[in-house]
Specification:
single chain; 153 residues; mainly alpha; three-stranded parallel sheet
Length: 153
């Protein structure tokens, strides 16, 4: 996915892939392999609650200056733990390294240490996630290994 608006669809589609394979073909979840790539403006959702609590206002990009910081990743905290649930079902996540570096520069600001922020991001990914050089590289490599591509926005 490339946008925050695509996140709910990606979550639903992953669940539908598991459920549809089971009900339509008798294929167990353990035999279904799903990778969700968080890239472009959806990249920030690949970071865990610690990052969102600390930097969430900067990650969302649209929050008012006086708005409270998010309590955590909107899709992996409180009553909404969809990413953790998908990870338990075997979903793997790729997080775009190019966009993560851009976010780290935004969070660090002109006088800050963007490399330190990037390392913080790397150390605080959602369950079953890893940073890849670029989200589009992760997508193309997965296709080389036989994965089908589903775009959700």
């Amino acid at each position: 996915m490339t946008s925050p608006a695509g996140v709910p669809d990606a979550i639903r589609f992953a669940g539908n892939l598991f459920n549809g394979n089971k009900s339509g073909y008798g294929v167990e979840e353990s035999d279904v392999s799903i990778v969700i790539v968080l890239r472009h403006s959806a990249t920030a959702y690949g970071f865990n609650n610690a990052v969102w609590t600390k930097h969430g206002k900067m990650l969302g990009g649209q929050a008012a200056a006086d708005a409270p910081a998010p309590a955590g990743n909107p899709y992996d905290s409180g009553d909404r733990t969809q990413f953790a649930g998908l990870a338990k079902r075997g979903v793997h996540f790729m997080v775009c390294g190019t966009a993560s570096r851009g976010l780290s520069r935004r969070v660090a600001g002109q006088a800050g240490d963007a490399d330190a922020v990037f390392k913080e991001f790397e150390s605080n990914l959602i369950a079953s996630a890893r940073i890849v050089s670029a989200g589009v590289v992760g997508v193309t490599h997965a296709q080389e290994y036989g994965y089908s591509y589903i775009y959700v926005g």
